[in-house]
Amino acid sequence: MHVLIVGAGIAGLTAAIALRHKGIDATIIEQASQLSEIGAGIQIAANGSVVLRELGLEQAVAAKSVIPGSFDMRDIRDGKLLWVAPLGEEGTRRWGAPLYNIHRADLIEILADALPSESVRLGVHCTGFSQDDNGVTVHVEDGDDLHGHVLIGADGIHSVIRKQLFGEDEVQFSNILMWRALIPAEKLEHVDLPERGNYWFGPGRTLITYWIRPQNLYSILASVPSGEVHRESWTESGDIDELRASFADLEPRAQAMMDQIDTAFLTGMFYRDPIDRWTDRRVTLMGDAAHPMVPFLAQGACQGMEDAWVLATMLEHYVDDPMAGLQEYEQRRRPRTTRVQSGARAMVKLVHESEPERIKARNGRWKGMQHIDPMAEATWSFVWEYNVLEEVKRPAGEVLGLSATREDKRMERPESQRAFDMWKAAFTAEDVARGHDGMREGYERFLTTHFPAPDDLSVENAELGGVEALRVRAAGATAADNRTTVLHFHGGGYMLGSAKGSVEYAGRLARAVGGDCVTVDYRLAPENPYPAALDDAVDAYRGLVNSGVAPSRILLSGESSGAGLALALALTLKMAGDQQPAGIIAICPFADLTLSGASIKEFAGQDPAANRDTLAFMAASYFQEHEPRDPLVSPLFGDLKGLPPLFLSAVEGESLYSDSSRLLERAREADVEVTMVPVKDSVHVYTLFPFLPETTETLNEISRWARRVTG
Question: Which of the chain's termini has less CB crowding within 10 Å, N or C?
């Protein structure tokens, strides 16, 4: 087999090396006349380092790079430490390989030196390709065409190969410009810059800085809003006065560092949206040609290296059928890179917040993450922990896609598969890329599209103790018929959801208990961290009581985080001496915001609605600087004695199942009357899905239980 690769960047060079490692001949076609990489520093995390190790190149990289001791995130104006991600020896042990900071030119040189000179054709401009049943031909300008069995487009964000395959698609501009500069060590002798990731964040701007040659050369990436400067060329030196103007209000250490910059280059931060296909018969894409991403997960190079190893492995496996090899390569890679692309854009949004309240919320979330995730695993493990050398040995369907769920995961019944697929598609790549704002819109769309309120449902605005809510009454019921009121708290990790989105489910709860369901629009994190949601829950309960509804006729209800909030409300009422409600309905409760439940790890990749990374992001957004083991944050750790009867249900196999199983044990130990309904072959908060038989069965159980506990 002979493989043609267009593009001699990091991805293309690594692919050629990996192919030769597998005994496959490869030729790279590069339009540049020499491999001189302009730029500054690049980070190779553990998931890229393992590829370099397998190819025999890690030692060469280590000799020219720096292993940072940590990522230290600081406020750009006062230098306050916001968040730390441990690296160095501790990180190497955790992730299986070091993270290296290296100059792009040094890495390109190491990769090029690993190939025979005749395998890299410089100064050859590709104008397109043609293919047939026997092979593929690359057409070149002013030269002889090249022929091979397979063509790989590794020619970057403006790929000629991608354009011919799929037509012109829009390059997206992030509205952020990036200054890149290098400072010799002798100019920084008076500045305390340890061998760490020294990062600063301010309104709409960041400083990402680190050593790339040990005590020899320092790299700076300074990002600013696009309106502050206007050049976007790598080949044109920027006006340093413009750079200084954008960073005029720095803390002293950052200022001392920036004062040493003499020249800098400026470029725009561009990306493309994920596409549905990379491959056409004998031609496929890799690296930035396939999945160009913003640099704020530092994964552009690493994802290209992962591509290279999977591509080489698949072509080795399918040596007699390279088209099948390319199809499986794409099957294994595209779900993962889509997730990484979206995560990188979400990180860009997070670190470039400009409004004071949103910056405060972001910093609070980071503080919260330190409480429950000291190794920063929830942020980085989905990229750093991935060992492509091992993953490529697994079945192709086990790759985790955007929902962090195995692509081949299948349920036992068609109706449960339908619910699973709905959860899996709840958030688009664009939703995830926009952070909690996009996820909030996506969740509302998911609920209102799939579970619209029926026309005959009575829905009225209500205000309970100053808290907005919706009163939902089943068809045919009147206020005079009302015997029981459900006070319901929607799920969404304290960060998503609304009363409006829960109306359809509230109507079914109202019918089940033969009364009303009042669904509460409590304040959401991260804008409104703990105790905002709990304060609203308390006010809503007391407002309901003050409106004339006896506590003995009130049932608290919630699903997921809403169930946790209902339990925290009951604990608060007990502490305050208020009369308890008649009972609590907790469906698939999120009751432990420390994420210590065994099921979160045990069922990783199987639950499309909840995974550790998203749960940590939501939980830390809620409790922020507060202690997560506080029972009013994580009611699993509370004294449950004296609480009213509890109706509990959860799905065996969901990420949060341990919250329910441990809650059941603690309730029994506290002599709380508890009814547990375990469910198999279903999804998180299954009761949202009215077409599931288990939903009907559970609501019937709730109906019988409600009649009993309300007398």
Answer: C
Task: Give DSSP secondary structure letters for 163-181.
Answer: HHHH---PPEEEEEEEEEE
Task: Count Cβ atoms below 10 Å from residue 458 Cβ, excluding itself.
Answer: 17
Give long-range contacts, CB 8 A cutoff, 24+ apart: 366-369.
366/73, 366/82, 366/83, 366/620, 367/82, 367/83, 367/620, 367/624, 367/625, 368/619, 368/620, 368/621, 368/622, 368/623, 368/624, 368/625, 368/626, 368/628, 369/83, 369/616, 369/620
> For 209-241, what is each residue's pLDDT tens digit?
999 998 899 999 999 999 887 654 444 566 788
Q: Are 251 and 76 in contact (CB under 8 A)?
A: yes
How remote is the C-alpha of 383 from its chain's centroid? Answer: 10
Q: How far apart are CA 696 and CA 680, in angstroms?
A: 14
Contact predicate 641/519, CB 8 Å:
no
- Residue 521 CA to residue 370 CA, distance in Å, equals 29
The pLDDT score that the predictor gives to residue 442 is 98
Whole-number CA gyration radius for the chain? 28
- CB contact set of 31 (below 8 Å; sequence gap of 6+): 123, 124, 125, 126
- The model's pLDDT over 548-598, given as tens digits with 9 standing for 90+, comes to 999 999 999 999 999 999 999 999 999 999 999 999 999 999 999 999 999
Q: Tokens standing for 666? A: 């603690």
CA distance 178 to 265: 8
Consecutive H or E run containing 15:
helix 10-21
Q: What would the two tokens of residue 222 be?
A: 């300074």
Cα–Cα distance for residue pair 672/309, rounded to 1 Å: 56
CA 631 to chain centre: 27
Residues 6+ apart with CB under 8 A from 334: 274, 278, 290, 291
The rounded distance, in Å, linking the Cα atoms of 618 and 620 is: 6
Query: Residues 642, 458: contact at Cβ < 8 Å?
Result: no
Which residues, at least 6 apart from 118, have a Cβ–Cβ distance to it below 8 Å?
Answer: none
Compute the C-alpha angle 523/471/586, nearest 5°. Answer: 65
348 Cβ contact partners less than 8 Å away, ≥ 6 residues apart? 174, 176, 269, 294, 296
Contacts of 44 (CB under 8 A, 6+ apart): 52, 61, 65, 99, 100, 102, 107, 301, 302, 305
β-pairing, 554-559 vs 485-489, is parallel
Cα distance between residue 612 and residue 601, in whole Å: 8
Element (H, E) at 436: helix 435-450
> Which residues are catalytically annotated?
210
Q: For residues 296 and 292, what is the distance between their CA atoms, to the nearest angstrom?
A: 12
Check whether 482 has a pLDDT greater than 60.
no
DSSP state of 400: B
Q: What is the pTM of this model?
A: 0.95
The predicted model gives 112-132 an average pLDDT of 95
Rounded Cα–Cα distance for residues 332 and 326 (Å) = 10
The predicted model gives 497-516 an average pLDDT of 96
